[in-house]
Specification:
Residues 170-296 form the NADPH-dependent reductive aminase-like C-terminal domain. It comes from Actinacidiphila epipremni. Keywords: Oxidoreductase. Belongs to the HIBADH-related family. The structure is a single chain. Helix 4 links the parallel strand 4 and strand 5. Strands 3-2-1-4-5-6-7-8 form an 8-stranded mixed beta sheet, sandwiched between helices. 48% of the residues lie in helices and 11% in strands. With 310 residues, the chain is an alpha/beta fold.
Length: 310
């Protein structure tokens, strides 16, 4: 695929490898935008609905790649991507591989090297919104890799709808955003379910607890923005809350949960970070300082056992 055209064909042929829920949604969006679409899936039988809407089912990865100028892959993980594309006797010359499979930054960089060795352009992408948003204004996808390649396929990828944000020429950057955002989600969900378990152990009805918990959740957007500003500036004022005060609060939660036999693994990990920050002399700093403590590490501190009140 030529990557220097200022006026790319709006009906670029697209090949889609992988027809899980997200792959199916991506294929449907390309079809709705008028692109010739060829689809392949390791397990046969998932393409029928798309074929009825105008897609072509490929019998092999090589056949799908041959049909597409932009080849979008959306599989379970990096291992599945490699199992599909590496053994395939496909001609990648002049094509663009857009990898929308969730993975790790190092894996994205390695796939970019693999694609370059076969004459293909490469973009790594992170889909940040669920399948129902694909093809709508609510969709959000991050892309990283060659800026020239992104410019060449931007109009084609616009079929997915919403926001298409280019985040840099390092192929691993989009995956870096994704894993960090998944970190927010995973730890937040763990915190929510852990809190419900603790509240229930204390005899608090879930619905009544939820009414107050949503208020706590409402504090996060402003806090995230403020932490970002403080980390960028390297200044961590403790005017709202300090690490030392957080140490006391986490201790109360750990002790209360342990008293009910509720797992405290994530909380004790958080307390270790807080204790390390205090040991490094940051007790009077604001909580954003903890991100630097985590990234830079430092001497560990003795584990504090939970104190049961029972």
């Amino acid at each position: 695929m030529t990557t220097t055209s200022e006026h790319p064909d709006p009906r670029v042929p697209v090949a889609l490898l992988g027809l899980g829920p997200m792959g199916h949604a991506l294929s449907a969006a390309f079809l709705a935008a008028g692109h010739p679409v060829t689809v392949w899936n390791r397990t046969p039988g998932k393409a029928a609905g798309l074929v009825a809407r105008g897609a072509t089912a490929a019998g092999s990865v090589a056949q799908a790649v041959r049909a597409g100028r932009v080849v979008v892959v959306c599989l379970r993980d990096d291992k599945a991507v490699r199992a599909a594309v590496v053994p395939a006797d496909a001609d990648w010359t002049g094509r663009v591989l857009v990898n929308l499979t969730s993975g790790e930054p190092a894996q994205a960089r390695e796939m970019a090297r693999w694609a370059a060795g076969r004459g293909a352009g490469y973009l790594d992408g992170a889909v940040l919104t669920p399948t129902p948003t694909i093809g709508t204004p609510a969709a959000a996808v991050l892309y990283s890799g060659s800026g020239e390649v992104f410019a060449a396929v931007r109009e084609t990828m616009a079929a997915l709808g919403g926001t298409a944000a280019y985040v840099g020429d390092d192929p691993g950057t989009a995956a870096g955003y994704e894993v960090a955002l998944l970190d927010v989600f995973a730890t937040a969900v763990n915190g929510v379910v852990h809190a419900f378990a603790l509240a229930s152990a204390e005899g608090i009805a879930p619905q009544r607890f939820a009414a107050f918990a949503t208020g706590i959740g409402g504090l996060l957007p402003e806090m995230i923005t403020r932490f970002g500003e403080q980390l960028a500036a390297g200044r961590f004022p403790g005017d709202r809350s300090t690490i030392a005060s957080a140490a006391a609060g986490i201790g109360h939660v750990v002790n209360a949960a342990a008293g009910h036999g509720i797992d405290t693994g994530m909380l004790t990990a958080a307390r270790r970070t807080v204790d390390r920050a205090v040991a490094q002399g940051h007790g009077a700093d604001g909580l954003a300082r903890l991100a630097e403590v985590l990234r830079r590490g430092g001497p560990s501190v003795p584990e504090r056992p939970a104190v049961s009140s029972g």
